[in-house]
Specification:
Chain lengths: 602, 201
């Protein structure tokens, strides 16, 4: 049977067809839909969870695989930094059942704070790495990954990229194999599973040998494919980039690698010897190129193609033309194209009805320095708020705030962190602030979800993966009190005055304080209220309402005579009735809807 | 055969991704190799959303190159304008006239292009350009969310694919509760386009 699946749906299907029984991970674009799909479509066959963070997910996966369950971990590229500590020991130990880790990288930085190339982790950890080119391979490589994992007693890494995870291609579906219902007693194999230096020494030697064994096996594996055409140009590539290469170089011979760590050295030497010019086309770092060069083979790569961003067909073609690899066609660009190049961009903004809006409106007014974290609230770094002054990695904000305190900056300071991020990596730095006597306001923005990545659960919520599975909810306020924070204040995020008072109170406190802004994400409550309207008699076109940066608040076509500016209007199809704009309007011109009206956004 | 290349674009929250999913599904059901690539970024949060869809005998890259898109479906005028470079000279454009100005426009930092300039730029680049206010139509039939299926209906008038294939794909992607509303929306959009003489040409 055929189906058209996204790469992430295909990884989920692959888990099903590989007989995987446990899947753990922490959300992160572009990887999140793997677990979401498993939770909604394969819940009867596989246990899945959103773990508190990636490291916890990796440890849990190791534990399940040690116990004899085939297991998968999913992460976005930067999540590998968090789970790597545990990945490295699992490579030393191996497991009783197959273990695959899927990392979804983000060349092009569509939704990440960096463009790191996780193929390095395969070399660092000495772990076999598979790279699929489409959804069919995404599915097949999970099955293959489990096979390799069990054959060589090693975890296997699978690298996706946004263009695999978020593209859809047609997949031939297979069946699920028989899987054990029960597992036996836990193995007490200390020299295999306890990485004490004494045992780890031997494990290291075993890992080196294992990679040599895999390399030998790889030479004759069907994971690598050669497409012989004209031999003037030979291209070595892998993953989705292979499909771009086929569009741009229809006549070139191609060696497409399915496994990219280790690499099939003999096969590469052989291919290289049969083509006139050898080129490696890989996005980001020259990982294949450097290894091929180390074999003494002359090869082009990053001398032609940039190490930054994606190499989509258009861009690949431009590079190939400038290196005279292919001939340029003369395309005359219409003048309209140039004329409209600089039209207003449309960057992301807080949704209408977002609970984060009021805090950033207030922080902008208070002019405090703000150490920021990652989540939807980082949109507060954009105009009109400009109120999140740093952002680096998840959980970093509280540590950075502490650093500002140690440095004794002359101002009172704040950091922002979402509820999911707080559980992920905010608790250790908060404990650090308490223990080391810091001063600053930690604003925990509790919108009851992991909104940024598509509204997954976290330990502060009462369901897991799907709403049908109940979970124990941890309350943040008693938690931070128990951690020794003496000043804790919870406020209604939709009440601008209350939020402002909360900030002022906490800023006054001489010590670490926590302000919890509580308000459900509009996608959690899913209860948009009817739209507000602007009373044009009262509107004085002062544009204060635009300072809440809401896409539903727009310019009308009517001018206010006194200042010649356009009055405001509210787009009834976008407004979710949160009232924040009406609270900041100085003339009371933004009016609540009549009682009993239905929201257009429902 | 030559691949048929589509672009479906709009603003996060308008349901463009689902419209692209339907296009990709229809391609498969109609017997093509079908691929789709989404750029969502922070789509839910009001950013631009772009979906490439390609139908063909065997499709390689899941996205089209500049100057090769045959059909553009835009949920918002400015988003249509953003894709000029992708349009082939023989292309067809259908766009929703309902404007959603980016926040930078209301904050006075930028301005929204004039309606007639926008239209003539599209007309100078593509072969055929059609537009109507699909958002108003959706509000009229009782749910602004139906805008994506109205637009898919309009777009479907150009494709040589049977109506029941479209209906099967729509039923797969919309919640059962809203099936009737969405099928109605599809036919409203389709009929709006079928009225245009040049569509059949
Ligand atoms: C190590 C790591 N894992 C995952 C991500 C992806 N990610 C970005 S923000 C975020 C969490 C957002 O949730 P929350 O803190 O609750 O804020 P919200 O978006 O709900 O406002 C995640 C998982 C990341 N950037 N880094």
């Amino acid at each position: 049977m055929k189906a058209i699946l996204s790469g992430n749906e295909a990884f989920a299907r692959g888990a099903y067809e590989a007989g995987i029984q446990v899947v753990t991970g922490y959300p992160g674009t572009p990887s999140s839909e793997i677990i979401t799909t498993i939770g909604s479509q394969y819940n009867d066959d596989m246990y899945s969870e959103w773990s508190t963070n990636e490291k916890v997910a990796m440890d849990a996966a190791a534990g399940a695989a040690y116990s004899g369950r085939r297991t998968m971990v999913t992460t976005k590229q930067v999540g590998m930094n968090v789970l790597s500590d545990s990945l490295l020991y699992s490579v030393y130990t191996g497991a009783e059942a197959g273990l695959v880790v899927v990392t979804a990288d983000d060349p092009g930085l569509f939704s990440s704070q960096n463009e790191q190339d996780n193929r390095w982790y395969a070399r660092l950890a000495k772990i076999p790495l598979l790279e699929p080119q489409d959804s069919q391979e995404a599915k097949d490589f999970v099955v293959k990954g489990i096979e390799i994992s069990e054959k060589f007693d090693t975890p296997v890494l699978i690298r996706s990229v946004m263009r695999i995870s978020h593209s859809k291609t047609i997949v031939e579906l297979g069946e699920r194999p028989e899987v054990p219902k029960e597992v036996g007693k836990f193995p007490r194999d200390i020299s295999k599973y306890n990485c004490t230096a004494m045992y780890a020494k031997e494990m290291h030697a075993k890992v080196e040998q294992r990679m040599l064994d895999i390399e030998e096996w790889l030479e004759s594996s069907d994971l690598n494919k050669i497409e012989w055409k004209d031999t003037k140009i030979g291209i070595i590539t892998s993953g989705v980039v292979h499909t771009y290469v086929r569009d741009v170089f229809p006549n070139a011979s191609v060696l497409k690698l399915g496994m990219i760590n280790p690499i099939p050295k003999k096969l590469i030497k052989d291919f290289a010897s049969k083509v006139d010019t050898l080129i490696v086309v890989e996005e980001l770092d020259p990982i294949l190129e450097e290894q091929i060069k180390a074999l003494g083979i002359e090869v082009h790569g990053k001398d032609i193609f940039s190490p930054c961003y994606e190499l989509l067909p258009d861009r690949l073609k431009e590079f190939a033309v400038s290196a005279n690899l292919i001939e340029a066609e003369t395309v005359v660009e219409k003048e309209e194209v140039a004329k409209f190049k600089d039209i207003p961009s449309r960057s992301a903004v807080f949704c209408p009805g977002c609970p984060h809006r009021s805090s950033f409106y207030v922080m902008n007014q208070l002019k405090v320095p703000v150490a920021g974290d990652i989540g939807c609230y980082n949109l507060g770094s954009m105009p009109p708020f400009n109120a999140q002054h740093t952002m680096g990695a998840m959980g970093a904000s509280i540590g950075v705030l502490h650093g500002m305190s140690i440095a004794k900056i002359p101002e009172n300071r704040v950091c922002t962190i979402g509820d999911s991020t707080f559980f992920h990596s905010g608790m250790p730095p908060l404990a650090n602030m308490v223990h080391n006597g810091s001063r600053g306001v930690v604003v925990i923005m509790d919108n009851s979800t992991t909104a940024m990545t598509g509204h997954q659960d976290h330990p502060g919520m009462d369901w897991m993966v799907t709403k049908e599975r109940a979970a124990k909810k941890i309350e943040i306020e008693p938690l931070v009190r128990a951690m020794g924070v003496e000043k804790v204040k919870s406020v209604n995020a939709f009440n601008v005055k209350e939020v402002k008072r909360g900030f002022e109170e906490c800023l006054e406190f001489d010590g670490p304080s926590v302000l919890i802004t509580k308000g459900e994400c509009i996608f959690v409550s899913r209860k948009p209220k009817p739209a507000f309207t602007v009373n044009t008699e009262k509107c004085i076109a002062c544009h204060t309402c635009f300072r809440v940066g809401c896409p539903a608040v727009v310019l009308s076509e009517e001018k206010f005579e006194k200042n010649g500016k356009f009055k405001s209007r509210i787009d009834p199809t976008l407004c979710n009735g949160c009232s924040v704009c009406s609270q900041v309007c100085p003339t009371g011109a933004i009016e609540a809807p009549e009682a009993g009206k239905r929201s257009l956004a429902e | 055969m030559k691949d048929i290349n589509f672009l479906v674009v709009g603003v996060g929250g308008q349901g463009t991704v689902l419209a692209g999913d339907i296009m990709a599904e229809v391609g498969m059901l109609a017997g093509y190799d079908s691929k789709k690539s989404d750029v969502l970024g922070l789509a839910i949060r009001g950013g631009s959303v772009v979906s490439h869809i390609r139908w063909g005998e065997k499709v390689d890259a899941p996205m089209s190159m500049r100057g090769t898109v045959d059909y553009l479906l835009a949920f918002e005028p400015l988003e249509a304008l953003r894709q000029l470079a992708f349009l082939s000279p023989e292309s067809t454009v259908v766009y929703n006239e309902y404007k959603i100005p980016p926040v930078s426009v209301s904050s006075g930092l930028t301005s929204y292009p004039e309606e007639n300039e926008l239209k003539s730029a599209l007309e100078a680049t593509a072969q055929r350009v059609y537009s109507f206010n699909a958002t108003d139509t959706a509000v009229e039939i009782g749910n602004v969310k139906a805008v994506n299926i109205i637009l898919i209906g309009a777009f479907s008038a150009f494709m040589d694919v049977k109506v029941d294939v479209w209906e099967t794909a729509i039923k797969k992607f919309v919640p059962a509760k809203y099936e009737e509303l969405n099928l109605k929306a599809f036919h409203i959009g389709r009929e709006l386009m079928e009225k245009e003489e040049s569509v059949k040409a």
